[in-house]
Amino acid sequence: xxxxxRNRFMNPDxxxxxxxxxxxxxxxxxxxxxxAEVDPGxxxxxxxxxxxxxxxxxxxYEEFVRNRDRILETFARSVHGADIEALPSSFLVAGTxxxxxxxxMGEEYSRCVRIxxxxxxxxxxxxxxxxVYAAFGGLLNDPEVITLSRTESHVMRAHRRxxxxxxxxxxxxxxxxxxxxxxxxxELLEGLDEDLILVTQDNTYRNHITYLREEYRERTGKTxxxxxxxxxxxxxxxxxxxxxxxxYEEKEEG
Length: 254
What we know:
The protein is α/β, with parallel strands linked by helices. It is built from 12 helices and 5 strands.
């Protein structure tokens, strides 16, 4: 198990760690890395450029852990179900010497598929073998990253926000995770002269951007920016994304 020190979650009073701009990466950004065709370590390397500005609420960790098992199990099922496309059974195919070679290749293919599927399944029970979880844990335990703990006050305010119909909200959700996170971010940044870059692929925020920007400006006196990619936040901070990250995000958009 990756050693994630949950007691590092703290109440938002670490003003000495704050810089002029803070960045929040939504859970869907981290979960999306499971689908990357590039090394996850390269993507987390780009995220590492932002770590002195990152805010990581404990709810993001909880949501990440809840969903990683489902993603890995889906991957394992799809791998186990993969097979070489069946060839016609005609003697024109089966009677050739090359067909025997293909049969041997198929047996090796099936063996490798079983190994890959089993390996992915084992990551559910043993997160230490999951490279995305391991990198996420390293980020979570990095002393430069500000981690935030949830309080009952956050939950109560989020519940009230939900009842009033105020964003961030999703009509399809009965949970208040987005509302809780937003209350945590507002409480931390209120009066601290900090802009906020919110990186998410969730329309919960983008569909209510006018309201959220006005509320953020009213509460903090500063500006809220919303990006849908890690590279977007890097550019906004004057940093260069890696080629691996750009390939991943280009593939994701496609």
